[in-house]
Amino acid sequence: MNTQSTFAQNPGNDQTTEETPRARYGVPKNSTAFEMLFETAAGHLHTDQLHYLARMGEEAKLQAESLSSGLMTLGCLINEAEPLTEPSQQSVAEILWGLSSRLDNIGGLIALAGNARDELGQREAKAGAK
Protein backbone atom coordinates (compact mmCIF):
# COMPACT_ATOMS: atom_id res chain seq x y z
CA MET A 1 0.00 0.00 0.00
CA ASN A 2 1.18 3.49 -0.72
CA THR A 3 2.17 4.86 2.69
CA GLN A 4 2.31 8.49 1.55
CA SER A 5 -1.14 9.79 0.80
CA THR A 6 -1.46 11.31 -2.65
CA PHE A 7 -4.84 12.65 -1.60
CA ALA A 8 -3.69 14.55 1.48
CA GLN A 9 -2.05 17.14 -0.77
CA ASN A 10 -4.70 17.17 -3.49
CA PRO A 11 -7.90 15.30 -2.55
CA GLY A 12 -9.59 13.60 -5.45
CA ASN A 13 -6.80 14.43 -7.88
CA ASP A 14 -7.30 11.70 -10.46
CA GLN A 15 -6.23 13.75 -13.45
CA THR A 16 -2.88 13.97 -15.13
CA THR A 17 -1.51 17.25 -16.44
CA GLU A 18 -2.51 16.30 -19.97
CA GLU A 19 -5.94 17.12 -21.32
CA THR A 20 -8.21 14.09 -21.24
CA PRO A 21 -11.93 13.75 -21.96
CA ARG A 22 -12.43 12.82 -18.30
CA ALA A 23 -10.67 16.03 -17.22
CA ARG A 24 -12.49 18.10 -19.83
CA TYR A 25 -15.90 16.97 -18.55
CA GLY A 26 -14.87 16.91 -14.87
CA VAL A 27 -15.83 13.26 -14.42
CA PRO A 28 -14.29 11.65 -11.31
CA LYS A 29 -12.80 8.18 -11.53
CA ASN A 30 -14.32 5.38 -9.49
CA SER A 31 -10.92 3.77 -9.03
CA THR A 32 -9.61 6.99 -7.48
CA ALA A 33 -12.55 7.04 -5.08
CA PHE A 34 -11.79 3.42 -4.07
CA GLU A 35 -8.15 4.34 -3.41
CA MET A 36 -9.07 7.49 -1.48
CA LEU A 37 -11.50 5.60 0.74
CA PHE A 38 -9.04 2.78 1.36
CA GLU A 39 -6.23 5.16 2.30
CA THR A 40 -8.54 6.81 4.81
CA ALA A 41 -9.95 3.61 6.30
CA ALA A 42 -7.04 1.14 6.08
CA GLY A 43 -5.77 1.61 9.63
CA HIS A 44 -9.27 1.20 11.05
CA LEU A 45 -10.29 -1.97 9.21
CA HIS A 46 -10.46 -5.29 11.02
CA THR A 47 -8.46 -8.18 9.63
CA ASP A 48 -11.62 -9.96 8.41
CA GLN A 49 -12.61 -6.80 6.52
CA LEU A 50 -9.18 -6.65 4.89
CA HIS A 51 -9.48 -10.30 3.87
CA TYR A 52 -12.83 -9.50 2.29
CA LEU A 53 -11.37 -6.55 0.37
CA ALA A 54 -8.37 -8.64 -0.67
CA ARG A 55 -10.82 -10.91 -2.51
CA MET A 56 -12.13 -8.03 -4.65
CA GLY A 57 -9.78 -9.21 -7.38
CA GLU A 58 -12.15 -12.17 -7.79
CA GLU A 59 -15.03 -9.72 -8.32
CA ALA A 60 -12.93 -7.82 -10.85
CA LYS A 61 -12.30 -11.06 -12.74
CA LEU A 62 -16.03 -11.83 -12.83
CA GLN A 63 -16.82 -8.31 -14.04
CA ALA A 64 -14.15 -8.53 -16.75
CA GLU A 65 -15.50 -11.90 -17.92
CA SER A 66 -19.05 -10.51 -17.95
CA LEU A 67 -17.97 -7.46 -19.92
CA SER A 68 -16.05 -9.64 -22.37
CA SER A 69 -19.03 -11.94 -22.86
CA GLY A 70 -21.39 -9.03 -23.37
CA LEU A 71 -19.12 -7.43 -25.94
CA MET A 72 -18.71 -10.74 -27.77
CA THR A 73 -22.49 -11.19 -27.87
CA LEU A 74 -22.95 -7.64 -29.12
CA GLY A 75 -20.30 -8.16 -31.80
CA CYS A 76 -21.96 -11.37 -32.96
CA LEU A 77 -25.40 -9.73 -33.08
CA ILE A 78 -24.08 -6.81 -35.10
CA ASN A 79 -22.22 -9.14 -37.45
CA GLU A 80 -25.31 -11.30 -38.11
CA ALA A 81 -27.91 -8.53 -38.25
CA GLU A 82 -29.26 -6.75 -41.24
CA PRO A 83 -27.22 -3.68 -42.10
CA LEU A 84 -27.58 -1.25 -39.24
CA THR A 85 -28.49 2.34 -39.59
CA GLU A 86 -25.67 4.52 -38.41
CA PRO A 87 -25.86 5.01 -34.65
CA SER A 88 -25.94 8.54 -33.40
CA GLN A 89 -22.77 10.11 -32.10
CA GLN A 90 -24.44 10.49 -28.69
CA SER A 91 -25.38 6.79 -28.46
CA VAL A 92 -21.85 5.70 -29.38
CA ALA A 93 -20.43 8.12 -26.79
CA GLU A 94 -22.76 6.75 -24.10
CA ILE A 95 -21.75 3.18 -24.88
CA LEU A 96 -18.06 4.05 -24.73
CA TRP A 97 -18.47 6.04 -21.50
CA GLY A 98 -20.24 3.05 -19.95
CA LEU A 99 -17.49 0.68 -21.05
CA SER A 100 -14.85 3.06 -19.74
CA SER A 101 -16.59 3.24 -16.38
CA ARG A 102 -16.85 -0.55 -16.13
CA LEU A 103 -13.16 -0.94 -16.92
CA ASP A 104 -12.27 1.76 -14.39
CA ASN A 105 -14.30 -0.14 -11.76
CA ILE A 106 -12.46 -3.35 -12.61
CA GLY A 107 -9.10 -1.61 -12.30
CA GLY A 108 -10.18 -0.05 -9.01
CA LEU A 109 -11.22 -3.41 -7.60
CA ILE A 110 -7.89 -4.94 -8.57
CA ALA A 111 -6.01 -2.06 -6.91
CA LEU A 112 -8.23 -2.28 -3.83
CA ALA A 113 -7.52 -5.99 -3.50
CA GLY A 114 -3.79 -5.36 -3.82
CA ASN A 115 -3.88 -2.57 -1.24
CA ALA A 116 -5.77 -4.81 1.19
CA ARG A 117 -3.24 -7.62 0.68
CA ASP A 118 -0.40 -5.15 1.29
CA GLU A 119 -2.03 -3.92 4.50
CA LEU A 120 -2.52 -7.50 5.67
CA GLY A 121 1.14 -8.25 4.91
CA GLN A 122 2.28 -5.20 6.88
CA ARG A 123 0.13 -6.20 9.85
CA GLU A 124 1.43 -9.78 9.75
CA ALA A 125 5.02 -8.50 9.59
CA LYS A 126 4.42 -6.23 12.61
CA ALA A 127 2.78 -9.10 14.53
CA GLY A 128 5.71 -11.38 13.70
CA ALA A 129 8.21 -8.77 14.84
CA LYS A 130 6.68 -8.59 18.33
Number of strands: 0
CA-CA gap between termini: 21 Å
Count of helical regions: 5
Average of the residue pLDDT scores: 82
Low-confidence stretches: 1-13
Which word captures the global form?
A: elongated
Kindly describe this structure.
By secondary structure, the protein is mostly helical. The chain has five helices and no strands.
Write the layout of secondary structure elements.
Blueprint: H1 21-25, H2 30-41, H3 47-54, H4 56-80, H5 89-129
Helix pairs in contact: 2-5, 3-5, 4-5
Task: Summarize the model shown.
By secondary structure, this protein is mainly alpha-helical. Helix content is about 70%, strand content about 0%. It has five helices and no strands.
What attributes does this structure have?
130 residues; mainly alpha; elongated; disordered N terminus
